[in-house]
Amino acid sequence: NGKKISWIDYAKPSYGLNDSAVQWDDKFVDELRVAIRSCKIFLCYPIFWLCYGQMTNNMVSQSGQMNTGSVPNDIMQNIDPLCIIILIPFFDWVVYPTFRRCGLELRPITRITIGFLVMALSMAYAAILQHFIYTKGPYFKHPGDDGNGFNDISAAIQVPGYVIMAIAEIFASVTGLEYAYKRAPESMKSIIMSIFLLTNAGGSILAFAFNPISSNPHLVENFAIVSGLMGAFTVLFIVCFRHYDRVDEEEIREKTVFEKEQ
Fold first, then answer.
1. What share of the chain is helix, strand, coil (3-state, %, to 5)?
2. Tell me, what's the pLDDT at 29?
3. Is it the case that residue 19 has pLDDT exceeding 60?
4. Between these two residues, 41 and 164, which has the higher pLDDT value?
5. 237-260: b (≥16 Cβ within 10 Å) or e
6. H helices then E strands: how many in the chain?
7. CB neighbour class for 213 (10 Å; exposed up to 12, middle 13-18, buried from 19)
């Protein structure tokens, strides 16, 4: 039928294997191919989760270096889930339909790419903010160290960083979960979802490498390096997976035609 043969197609019984020698059929091989291809996009997610993990550690420390008024500094991270609750319906009802009306369909790989880029921007914002914190007195590069108080800068300036991170989560994390569930074959949905969630552990492991620069006066470098990594992996993601949206669309079209013919 002119369709390109993949290496995994040779595992199909219809390609000459003795049917009695294997415990699977052609459908299982096709489902396995889709599952493997879906899992490939998860390779860049540990860097995304490395950035996301900054919210619960270094960004909490960062807010403690600023004047939070009567608000505890660890409360600031709650801005992120609050923004997600507000923005997800806004994106579903306003942003995505607006793009569709303009003839621009934001398909999964495109959304994830945008999410990665926005996450890199959120870390860049944190790095710039940390630089400003270090330029303010009275403690400059050592606020909170050895009993020091906070520098003369309002923690309100950190709010945009959490909003940007929430937008990144909507584009990358939510879409990744959706992609993992929808593209996974029925017999493999739980496995694919587990692999996607496992990437979060990968991000936590990577965070150990940043322990030496996760304190004053190195936090600017910490945020800058993490932002650079996310930006680099965004480019890598585009290069490796930019064709996935087209391939997915073709597979859905072929499946629809096949079902109509039955």
1. 80, 0, 20
2. 74
3. no
4. 164
5. beeebeebbeebeeeeeeeeeeee
6. 11, 0
7. middle
pLDDT tens sequence across 121-148 = 999 999 999 999 999 989 999 998 988 9
Query: Which residue in this structure is represented by tokens 């997610």?
Result: 45
Q: Which two tokens stand for residue 17?
A: 């294997």
pTM: 0.87
Positive or negative torsion for Cα 39, 96, 124, 156: negative
Q: Are 211 and 50 in contact, with CB atoms under 8 Å apart? A: no
CA distance 68 to 75: 10
> Residue 257 and residue 251: Cα distance in Å, rounded?
10
How many angstroms separate the CA atoms of 234 and 240, rounded? Answer: 10
What amino acid occupies position 6? S
The number of beta carbons lying within 10 Å of the beta carbon of residue 10 is 11
Q: What is the DSSP letter of 95?
A: I
Terminal-to-terminal C-alpha distance of the chain: 18
CA distance 249 to 157: 42
